[in-house]
C-alpha cells in the first residue's frame, strides 16, 4: 500500500509559510537599513504606489477600505491589517478591505510574492478571479485572507505556491475556488482553508487542477455545502488528506476525473455528498494508482464510486469507516476497467457489507473484493 502521509506535514507547511512571509521594507537612504513602507502615508497613498517603489520590499497596508486593482510585478510581501491572523477564526474590526470591482484585486506576475491578512471583495463575474497568477512564476504565499463573492478565488499558473488559512465565501456562479487549468503546476499546497456559500445549483469545485500537474497537496480544508472540494485531472502525485466535507447530493466531494496517477485520498471525513469519492473518466483517459484509505465516509449516496472506463489498475479502498451510504458503500461499475479491492473496511455493521440476509452494513457491488472487513468502527480494529 502506498504511503498516505502528505508530502508536507502541517509543521512543514507552516515552516514554508514562515520562511516565505518575512516582511522586508523600504531602504532608508541615510542608514541603508530596510524599513516597512506604510499605506496610506504621505509617500504612498495607494497600495499600487508602494508596489511600484522598488525600495519597498515590505508593505504594510493599514485597516480601511481600498478600491484598487493591484499589479504585482516584483517580489514583495504585502501585509494587510490582519497579517498573521488565521482568517478562519478572526472577528472584529481592523480589516484591510480591497474592492476590485469587476477586475482582479491582485494580479501577480513575479516570484515570491506574499499576500497576507486582507479581505478581498469580488470580482463577481463567472470565472473572474480575485487573485490572478498568469505568468508561470513560483514561490507565492497567499494566507490569512477572506475572499468574498468572487467568480473565482484564484487562477493559478504558479508552482511552489501555498494557499493557507484563507476563507472563501459565496462563489455564486458556475466556477471554482482555486483553479489551475492552463499551465502544468508543481508543488502546490492548498491547506487549512474554509470554503462555503457556493451556489449549489451550479457546478462548483473549491479546488480544481486540470493540466499536467504534479505533487499537489490538498489538506486540512473544510468545505460546507459547496458540492466538490477538489476535482483532479491529468495529475501525477496528489495527496488529498485530512479534509472535512459536508457535500451536496448532486456532487462528488472528491472527484478523480481522468488521466490521474499516484493519487492518495486519506484521513478525510465526508458526509451528505452524492459520492464521497468518485473515480471517473470525464476526459477520455482513465486513472491509475488510486488509494483511498482511512477515511470516514458516512451518510452519502455512495461512499466510493468507481465509474465506467475510469481506471487501468486496481482501486485500493482499505481501512475506511463506511456507513449510512444509501446506494452503495463501494460501487464498481462492471466496465470500470479493473477490480476494486475494498478489504479491511468498516461497513456499518460487524457482519460486513449488506450482501446477504444476515448482513446489515452498506452494500458492496459485484466486482468489489470486500473480505475481510473491520469488526468495529475504528481504523485499528481487528480485520476478519
Automatic annotation (TrEMBL):
Domain Right handed beta helix: 211-331
UniProt entry tagged with the keyword Signal: yes
Endpoints of the signal sequence: 1-21
UniProt entry keywords in alphabetical sequence: Signal
Gene3D superfamilies: Single-stranded right-handed beta-helix, Pectin lyase-like
Record's keyword annotation contains Signal: yes
InterPro entries xref list: Beta_helix, PbH1, Pectin_lyas_fold, Pectin_lyase_fold/virulence
Protein name stated in the entry: Right handed beta helix domain-containing protein
Amino acid at each position: 500500500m502506498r504511503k498516505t502521509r502528505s508530502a508536507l506535514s502541517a509543521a512543514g507547511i507552516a515552516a514554508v509559510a514562515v520562511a516565505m512571509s518575512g516582511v522586508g521594507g523600504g531602504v532608508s537612504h541615510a542608514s541603508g537599513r530596510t524599513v516597512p513602507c506604510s499605506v496610506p502615508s504621505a509617500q504612498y497613498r495607494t497600495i499600487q504606489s508602494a508596489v511600484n517603489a522598488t525600495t519597498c520590499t515590505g508593505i504594510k497596508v493599514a485597516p480601511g477600505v481600498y478600491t484598487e486593482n493591484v499589479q504585482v510585478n516584483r517580489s514583495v510581501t504585502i501585509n494587510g491589517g490582519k497579517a498573521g491572523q488565521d482568517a478562519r477564526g478572526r472577528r472584529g474590526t481592523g480589516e484591510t478591505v480591497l474592492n476590485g470591482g469587476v477586475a482582479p484585486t491582485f494580479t501577480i506576475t513575479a516570484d515570491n510574492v506574499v499576500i497576507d491578512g486582507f479581505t478581498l471583495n469580488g470580482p463577481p463575474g463567472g470565472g473572474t478571479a480575485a487573485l490572478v497568477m498568469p505568468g508561470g512564476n513560483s514561490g507565492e504565499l497567499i494566507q490569512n485572507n477572506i475572499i468574498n463573492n468572487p467568480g473565482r478565488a484564484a487562477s493559478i499558473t504558479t508552482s511552489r505556491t501555498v494557499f493557507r488559512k484563507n476563507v472563501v465565501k459565496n462563489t455564486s456562479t458556475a466556477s471554482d475556488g482555486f483553479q489551475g487549468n492552463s499551465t502544468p503546476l508543481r508543488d502546490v499546497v492548498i491547506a487549512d482553508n474554509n470554503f462555503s456559500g457556493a451556489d449549489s445549483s451550479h457546478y462548483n469545485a473549491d479546488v480544481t487542477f486540470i493540466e499536467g500537474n504534479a505533487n499537489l497537496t490538498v489538506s486540512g480544508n473544510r468545505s460546507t455545502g459547496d458540492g466538490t472540494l477538489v476535482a483532479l485531472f491529468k495529475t501525477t502525485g496528489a495527496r488529498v488528506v485530512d479534509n472535512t466535507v459536508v457535500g451536496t447530493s448532486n456532487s462528488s466531494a472528491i472527484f478523480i476525473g481522468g488521466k490521474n496517477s499516484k493519487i492518495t485520498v486519506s484521513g478525510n471525513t465526508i458526509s451528505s455528498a452524492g459520492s464521497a469519492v468518485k473515480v471517473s473518466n470525464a476526459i477520455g483517459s482513465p486513472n491509475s494508482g488510486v488509494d483511498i484509505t482511512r477515511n470516514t465516509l458516512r451518510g452519502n449516496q455512495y461512499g466510493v464510486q468507481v465509474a465506467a472506463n475510469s481506471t487501468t489498475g486496481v482501486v485500493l479502498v482499505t481501512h475506511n469507516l463506511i456507513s449510512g451510504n444509501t446506494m452503495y458503500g463501494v460501487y464498481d461499475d462492471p466496465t470500470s476497467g479493473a477490480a476494486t479491492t475494498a478489504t479491511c473496511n468498516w461497513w456499518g455493521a460487524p457482519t460486513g457489507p449488506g450482501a446477504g440476509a444476515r448482513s446489515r452494513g452498506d452494500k458492496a457491488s459485484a466486482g468489489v473484493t470486500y473480505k475481510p472487513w473491520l469488526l468495529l468502527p475504528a481504523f485499528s480494529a481487528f480485520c476478519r
